[in-house]
Amino acid sequence: MTNYKELELKAKMGDARSMKLLEERGNKLEKLSIRDELGRQLTWCPAAIPELLLQCIDEMYEQISITDIDTDVTIEEESFHSCRIEGADTTQEELFEIFRAKRKGVKGEKMILNTYRAVKYLNVSQKRDIETLVDLWNILTDGVSEESGFRTSNKTELHQAPEVDLLDYCMKQFFEFYHGDNIKSPYIKMAILHFYFVYMHPFRDGNGRIARLISTDFLIRSGLENFSAITLSKTINETTDAYYRALDWSENSLLDVTPFIQYMLKTVYDNFYEVLEGQQKYSQDRVNWEEVFE
Q1: Which partner for 229 in 74, 200, 225, 280 could form a disulfide, CB atoms 3.0-4.6 Å apart?
Q2: φ, ψ for residue 33 (rounded to 5)?
Q3: What's the CA gap between 240 and 242, in Å, rounded?
Q4: Running DSSP on this structure, what letter comes out for residue 63?
Q5: What is the sign, positive or negative, of the torsion defined by CA atoms of 194, 158, 207, 38?
Q6: Which residues contact 27 (CB under 8 A, 6 or more apart)?
Q7: Entry pTM
Q8: Which is nearest to 189 in space by CA: 155, 228, 229, 217?
């Protein structure tokens, strides 16, 4: 995975090797049909995505078997882990009481129940547009946030977000890419959508949870229905440092979002591996794809 922050810092200080590496990487990039707030096309590096990884993911997906019980339990666990990433201090042992007794005395418990409601909403809602995002935000922040609606500042906890006046442009870019015929692999497209949503950061609160919800939802709507019983947020929760690092490295001078694509593909692979191990269906050695990535 390319550490753009280190390379760019060294290049600015005149390091010839770093400048050469950035130039070589730039020559490998392909433009995406989605633009940042200044109208510049984002890029990615297909050569840095091993075909074997995509093949393994496809093969593993076909081996996973699910039931309706798995799906319901997964929604609860997805809600739990997604909120843990955002700082909810509820423990896994408390999940049963939260969902069976509908306990919601503290903020973390309300966050989890709200996320559960948001998943259910996506399951019945057919459209995917700005109104859908607003509905998600209203569900997720109900009773847990005093912030209101779309952000009014360019400064977020992660980065310098696009100018508020350019949010409409970014949102249009997001949905044109979402609904467009552009990237063959749904996993790669999901990663790009996830990154872009976090990058544009449209709301004052709840952006991370929405990004993870629409990522899984996009995969389900792409025909990968087993994702209704797969908890990607669990793996992200276990690797939060790498998650935020991949987001950070994907904001670079080359507009190359490959670091986040690599992270999300590795996350899907690791998640599938764990699921198949639990179903006693996978006996091959686990690959650490981070060591394979360019």
Answers
A1: 74
A2: -90, 45
A3: 5
A4: H
A5: negative
A6: none
A7: 0.90
A8: 217
DSSP state of 86: T
CB contact at 8 A, 255 and 100: no
CA distances for 243 relative to 43, 193, 237, 270, angstroms:
19, 15, 9, 14
- Which tokens belong to 169? 């442009």
Q: Residue 192 is encoded by which pair of tokens?
A: 């790009």
155 by DSSP, 3-state: which?
strand
Instruction: Identify the sign of the CA torsion 282, 285, 291, 292.
Output: negative
Q: Are 51 and 292 in contact (CB under 8 A)?
A: no
What is the C-alpha separation between 87 and 141, in angstroms, rounded? Answer: 14
**Coarse DSSP helix, strand, coil percentages of the chain, rounded to the nearest 5 percent:** 65, 5, 30
Q: 27: burial class by Cβ within 10 Å (0-12, 13-18, 19+)?
A: exposed
**pLDDT tens digits, residue range 64-123?**
887 655 566 677 777 777 777 776 666 666 665 666 665 556 666 888 888 888 989 998
Angle between helices 207-221 and 68-85 (to 10 degrees): 150
Contact assessment for residue 230 and residue 64, using Cβ atoms and an 8 Å cutoff: yes
Residue the block writes with tokens 């998650």 = 243
User: What are the structural domains, with CATH classification, of the chain?
Assistant: 4-281 (1.10.3290.10)
Tens of pLDDT, residues 165-221? 999 999 999 999 999 999 999 999 999 999 999 999 999 888 999 999 999 999 999
